[in-house]
Specification:
2 copies of one chain form a homodimer. By secondary structure, chain A is α/β, with parallel strands linked by helices. Chain A folds into 2 domains: about 1-140, Response regulator (Rossmann fold); about 145-205, Orthogonal Bundle (Arc Repressor Mutant, subunit A), CATH 1.10.10. Chain A contains 10 helices and 5 strands. The first copy, chain A, has a 5-stranded parallel β-sheet with strand order 2-1-3-4-5, with helices on both faces. In chain A, helix 2 packs parallel to helix 3 (about 60-70) and helix 3 packs parallel to helix 4 (about 85-95). Chains A and B meet through helix 10 of A and helix 10 of B. The structure holds a DNA duplex. Chains A, B: InterPro entries: CheY-like_superfamily, NreC/VraR/RcsB-like_REC, Sig_transdc_resp-reg_C-effctor, Sig_transdc_resp-reg_receiver, Tscrpt_reg_LuxR_C, WalR-like. Chains A, B: It is found in: Cytoplasm. Chains A, B: GO terms for molecular function: DNA binding. Chains A, B: This is DNA-binding response regulator.
Amino acid sequence: MIRVIVVDDHEIVRKGIIAYLQTEDEFDIVGEASSGNEGAELILELKPDVVLMDLMMENGNGIEATKHVMEQLPSCKIIILTSYYDDEQVFPAIQAGAFSYLLKTSSATEIATAIKKAASGQNVIEPKVAGKMMNSFRSENKKAHDTLTERELEVLLCIGNGMTNQEISEKLYIGIKTVKTHVSNILSKLEVHDRTQAAVYVHRNQLL
Amino acid sequence: MIRVIVVDDHEIVRKGIIAYLQTEDEFDIVGEASSGNEGAELILELKPDVVLMDLMMENGNGIEATKHVMEQLPSCKIIILTSYYDDEQVFPAIQAGAFSYLLKTSSATEIATAIKKAASGQNVIEPKVAGKMMNSFRSENKKAHDTLTERELEVLLCIGNGMTNQEISEKLYIGIKTVKTHVSNILSKLEVHDRTQAAVYVHRNQLL
DNA sequence: TTCAATCTCGGTCTTAAGGCGGAGGAAGAA
DNA sequence: TTCTTCCTCCGCCTTAAGACCGAGATTGAA
């Protein structure tokens, strides 16, 4: 039996998930909570094998709850089950220690499978989310372009689109002289010799 | 009931598939054939909903049979089920009018699912094959660079690597003037304004 | 043979690109 | 406040880039 706790502030969602999970006799729903704070307490008290956690909740969000739980009970597998797959949500959740990341568009079967896999130590990442993660990873292995300032990065991406200095200056509403300055700084930071190589850099590093 | 015909010159394979399909009561195996010619005749006579067709057969291959059938009976869904996923096989099959394309490494369940989906109008393409198709599509939608001469393509790829005219001339053992000529021709053929855009073109079209 | 395409190279000219040095203003950290 | 970073912009200068025009050599097809 896999001991499970469901944390979601929408009762209908929570009850629905629980009802479905109870149709399979592998799951033992030991508790449920409607907020991050409540959920964290319950989890630390009951020490379930797996937790289904929503991210966006009224009292204390899922990320904080996840972080808090993982500090006290690192063996607990927390599966994030949310509607959002923005960079702002996914990354902090993974960093907080979430074990799997599913979207609410997932089928009941997929969720059940994810719980079983989590109990046996396998991660499950929603494809859409996986893509985001790959991107994050890429930007994680910070390359030369992490030394670029925001403005320089903007200019670099313009170069990556094949724009001339003139076009860039018009797009960014700055003087062409300024663009040239940025370009020069970019070239030296990326250690390339001209804008063409900079454009190649952009595409090789999939910045665009 | 979905009326199905199985065409495959290996009896064991054919009988095996039929035996499995008969375990599900949604399928009505109305006929079977061991060659493309025989299969085409049988299909036109019995007008099944779905046909499972092997590609490599002794008498008349599956592609010709498919083409022939589709001319007479375009509503018939022909599922190609073969061991090969070479470019030479896949593409002609699709062009001949094949509805789905599966490999024999597929599980029985997948095949059954594919038949049901075909009956309801949904295509199923084996992932490995889908990849090939994507590539074919890319080379099918012939882009601007197909008008380039070999030499020009060489130069273009150099540009895509961020090389200067000087470097290109040294690599290809030609004068820098010649390189400039090629570059000018490339730019006008690709309808871009400078080498940076040409480099972007290379990477966007994954020529490198 | 004639013709077309391709590769090669030349001259001339204009301009975008990029290096170098300097500098003022704004915002945030020490 | 002082210092630093960043964004902005200036002038001067050199050179690579690219357009335009022409042309000889080779090859293969008609």
